[in-house]
Amino acid sequence: MELKSKIAEAAEIVIRTHGLAKATTKEIARTAGCSEGSLYNHFKSKDDLYLHILRGQLKNFMQTLMSLKDLIGKDTVRSNLEKVARAGLADYYQSMPLISSIFSEPGLLAQHREGFTARNEGPHRANEAVESYLLEEQRIGRVSEFVKPRSAADMLLGSCYQYAFQLNFLGRPLSDEEQDEYVHRVLDTLFAGIGND
């Protein structure tokens, strides 16, 4: 494993164990098995390191969202949204402690916002991707014309995010069984009004 990845992995462990405010570069370097100076060969600051970790937290979810455009008209709308819900719930659950810690650091949050703006990214892009997918499925008649695609996207992703928050808060693991049950329950409710397939 290259040193940059090793440092990022160590930083994630330290942040999860001690929290962002108490995660020192000295402790990160010790956990990574390198010198403190080595951190600065790969990252400008502890904040830069944190943002690097945070950007990598939702990779599976982002890949699933990017694949939606290739699923238009294929399989069922429900099975396609099930993939989104599973990936979203899993990545939200895993990343929740890191995502939440950014709100305790106003400067870091501002830096993160600036980076998102510069890259034309942000949490709202996930909802827009699901909305765009549903609009296309609606256009070809696989989603009811009465459905508001953005509201359906907000309900699906918002419920996954909120459930991930609850599980983290309560200290409960996200088991495969729990994930299956939750995703099916949400989609049963959503599809009571969403669609034609």
Distance between the termini: 46 Å
Largest sheet: none
Give, in order, the helices and strands: HHHHHHHHHH
Shape call: elongated
CATH topology of the largest domain: Tetracycline Repressor, domain 2
Give me the count of strands.
0
Strand residue content = under 5%
Helix-strand makeup class: mainly alpha
- The averaged pLDDT comes out at 87
The CATH top-level class label of the largest domain: Mainly Alpha
Q: Assign the CATH architecture of the largest domain.
A: Orthogonal Bundle
**Total count of helical runs of at least 4 residues:** 10
Q: What is the helix fraction of residues, given as a range? A: over 70%
Number of domains: 2
Radius of gyration: 19 Å
Low-confidence runs (pLDDT<50, min 5 residues)? none
Question: What brief labels describe this structure?
Answer:
single chain; 197 residues; mainly alpha; Arc Repressor Mutant, subunit A; Tetracycline Repressor, domain 2; 2 domains; 10 helices; 0% strand; elongated
Report on this model:
InterPro entries: Homeodomain-like_sf, HTH-type_TetR-like_transc_reg, HTH_TetR. Pfam families: TetR_N. Residues 1-61 form the HTH tetR-type domain. Keywords: DNA-binding, Transcription, Transcription regulation. The protein has helices at residues 3-18, 25-32, 36-42, 46-56, 59-67, 77-101, 106-119, 124-139, 149-170, 176-194. With 197 residues, it is mainly α. Helix 1 (3-18) crosses helix 4 and helix 6 (77-101) crosses helix 9.
